[in-house]
Write a structure and sequence with these properties.
Elements (H helix, E strand, L loop, with lengths): L48 H23 L8 H28 L6 H14 L3 H33 L5 E6 L2 E6 L8 E4 L9 E3 L3 E5 L1 H4 L4 E5 L3 E2 L4 E2 L4 E5 L7 H12 L5 H26 L10 H15 L2 H20 L2 E3 L3 H7 L3 E4 L11 E7 L4 H12 L5 H10 L8 E7 L3 E6 L2 E6 L1 H6 L14 E7 L2 E9 L6 H10 L3 E5 L4 H11 L3 E3 L4 H13 L4 E5 L5 H6 L2 E5 L5 H6 L2 E3 L5 H36 L5 H19 L8
Helix pairs in contact: 1-2, 1-4, 2-3, 2-4, 3-4, 3-8, 4-9, 4-20, 7-8, 7-9, 8-19, 8-20, 9-19, 9-20, 10-19, 11-12, 14-19, 19-20
Length: 665
Amino acid sequence: MIHNDDTDCCETKQNTAPKKNTEAGCCSHDDNKHSDDDGHDHSVGDQTTFQLFSPAITSFVLLIIAIVFDNYLPQTWFTGWVRIVWYIVAYLPVGFPVIKEAIGSARNGAFFSEFLLMSIATIGAFAIGEYPEGVAVMLFYAVGETFQTLAVTRAKANIKTLLDQRPDEVTILENNQPKIIKAKNAQIGDIIQLKPGEKLGLDGELLSETASFNTAALTGESKPDTKNKGENVLAGMINLNAVAEVKVTTLYTDSKLSKILEMVQEATSKKAPTELFIRKFAKIYTPIVVYAAIAICLLPYFFVDNYLFKDWLYRALVFLVISCPCALVISIPLGYFGGIGAASKNGILFKGSSFLDIMAAIQVVVMDKTGTLTKGVFKVQKVVAVGIPDADLIKYTAALETKSTHPVGTAIIDYANGAEKNSVVTAVEEIAGHGLKGTVDGNAILAGNTKLMKKFNISYDTEIDQTPFTIIVVAVNQKYAGYFLIADEIKEDAKQAIQSLHQINVKTVMLSGDKTAVVESVAKELNIDVAYGDLLPENKVEKVTDLKNKDLKIAFVGDGVNDAPVIALAHAGIAMGGLGSDATIETADIVIQNDQPTKIYTAINIGKKTKQIVWQNISLAFVVKAIVLVLGAGGLATMWEAVFADVGVALLAILNAVRIQRMKF
C-alpha cells in the first residue's frame, strides 16, 4: 500500500552483475583456485605453510652452502661445471615456477609480465657469471610471492567464513522419520528437523512454538534472535536451544544466504577505478621498462669510451628487477579485498570494490524514514470514527489493507484482530504516493494520506495535518469517515548514526512521503540537517537530482525496492534490511544486514581507510622504485638494492594492506 513514505513501487535498478548458473544458485567459488586477476596465482590449495615455503628453504640452504664454499671454506672440487650446476640446482626450486609462469603468460598474450622481467634478470645474471645474485634475487622474489599468497588467504578468511555458513545437507521428516538429504534436493513444503547447534540450510517458516537463533551469518550480529511460530527463518541461522521444525518455503538456489553469497563473490570481480588504472598502467609500464633496460645495456656503447658489455648488462638487469610492478598489482587489489572482507565482518556487504571508493567520497547521505531511521514496526495508537461505528471503520479499512504489503496496512490488520475476514474486497487500486482505493462489502473505500482525500475532493478535519504521527485517513462512499493514528518507533542507534556522520562533515537529508509534521518531528529529534515530507516518488527523485546538480557525492539509504528510482540515481544505493525483501539485495550497491543506521558511518569509514591504505601503497612503491631505478641506471645500485625495491616494497605494501582487517570499525 502506498500511504505516506517509502512507498513508490517501481522497477528495480539494473546494476547487478549477471548471475552464474550454478547448482548452488551463486557464483561457483573454489578458494583453492581463486585468482585475483592480477597475473598471479596465489593458490594455497591443501598445502601447509611449510610446504609453501619448502622450495624457498631448499634454495636458501643450497645458496648458503655455495656462498660458504665460495668465500669462507673454499673447496677444490667446488669449481667449474660443478659450481655452475650447484647454483642451477639452487635456482630451479624457486626459478622454474616463475619461468613456467612467464611462458604461460606469453602464450596467453601477456608477454611483458613481471615473471618475464624476473626470468630475464636472473638468467642474465647467470649469463655474466653472477650466480649467487641470480639465485638470491629469484629466492627473495619467491619468498615475497609466498608471503603474498598467505596475505591473500588471510584477506579471504572473513568471506570464506561466510561461504561456509550454508550446510550442504539437511534433515527432513518423511512420515515422521528423520532423513538426511542434500539441501539442494529439498522441496518447498518439506519439514526440516533442526537440532541445537545445527545451521539451517534453506529459508522457511518456523513450525515450533518458539526457537532462538544465532543470525551472525546474515547480520554480523551473534546475539540470539528469538522467533515464534509462523515467523520466517533463513538459511545460515544456527539453532541455539531445543529441536525445531521448519517448513521449507524457498528452494536452495533462491535462499537469502545464496543471494548474499553471490553478491559477495561477485564483489571481488568488480574492480575499483584505482585498480583498473594500475592494471592498465602496468600493461604500458612493463614493456617500456624492458625496452629501457635494452637501451641501458646497448646505447652506452655509442657514448662511453670504456664500454664493458658485462657491466652495462648488469645495470640493465638491476633495472629490470627494480622495475617489477609486483608491489602495485598485488597490494592494491589486496587492499580492496581486505576492505570488502572487513565490511563483511561488520555485517556490510559491498557489491564491488568501486563502491569502497565511492563511499570514501560521500558528502551527503540521503535517508528514507520508515525502516531506515525508524523500526518500521507500526502500531495503531488511536482510532477516530466520524459518522460510522468504530467497528465498521476498522473492518472496512482492514479488509482493504489485506491487499497491501505496507507495514502501515499490517498494523491496521493486526489491530482489527480478524474483524475483516468475512468481507468481500473488489476493484482494489493502488494510487502511488497516496493510498488505496477499493470496494468492501459494496462500499467504496478510500484509505491513505491526506493527499488522497484532496485528490478525490473529500473534506476532512484539517487539524490532523499538524499531528506529528502517521495518519491513515478513511473515506466511505465519498464521505470522510475518520482516521487511524499510527506511531512508528525510532531506532535506538539512529541519533548516534546522525551524530557520527556530522563528525566527519557528511550532511544528512531525510526524504519521506509521510506528513511534513511527522517528518519534521523525527528530523528535530535526530538533529537531521534537512528534511522533506509529503513527497511523491517523483519528488524524491527531484530532490536527489538537485543535490547531484550541485556536484555533491550522494548516498541514498532506503529499502531498496520502493525507492529504486532514487537508489538508481544516487552514487551509492544502500539497502537497509539484509533480512528484508529479496529485491533489496538485487537492487542496492551496498546492503546493511542488521538494519543499524550506525553502519552507514561504518561503511564510509571502511571506504576511507581502504582508499587511504591503497594510496599509501601506491606512493611507497613509486617513490622507492623511482629512487632505486635512477641509482640502478647509474650503476650505484646492486641486485641487493633491486631486491629491496621489488620484494621489500611489495612486502611492506602487503603488510600495510592487511592492516585494515585488524582495524575495529
